[in-house]
């Protein structure tokens, strides 16, 4: 399949990323006060492997094996700890020529303000975002237009995840975008066919003119 860029085509796909941290209580170890999870997920529970080849999550270098490579859902790292720190999330795509996306996410363990940490209510820090593909290759374009073909495995964290009220609106926009992209692709195909026909016609006219000149020369020579 061609890696040629689809000129003038822009495709966006929604994702969510963030962290969930659960306080383990006063009896927990001093260096393991929380159980936390950092992740990338589909906003409606869809399996993102149709467009994502891997997710790399880089933790604080005090952790063993701080760079975690995740090649299939769930794109999630779970650990125990006591401190907050910045993490780096890198998203790689099924088309290796597509530039990876880098995201910085701050791991939040403690509730805001003067709220007291609770073993029953986790601290959720999640963000909605959109991956924007500007003039993707034919390979990536077809994968994006095909979309997810299955749901990600059930996740124990999902009861804590935000529910996006815009999901239906996003789906409508995604469907509209898919339709427009198909129309653009069809128009592009027709233009290519028209250009090919015009080229063939031009070549036939040139051949006809060349033949006429040869016949005229032959006639002049005979006379």
UniProtKB/TrEMBL annotation:
Keywords assigned: Coiled coil, Nucleus, Transcription, Transcription regulation
InterPro entries: YEAST_sf, YEATS, YEATS_dom
Coiled coil: 184-218
One GO process term, biological-process aspect: regulation of DNA-templated transcription
Compartments reported by the entry: Nucleus
Main location: nucleus
Cellular component terms (Gene Ontology): nucleus
Superkingdom per UniProt: Eukaryota
Record domain YEATS: where: 5-147
Listed name of the protein: YEATS domain-containing protein
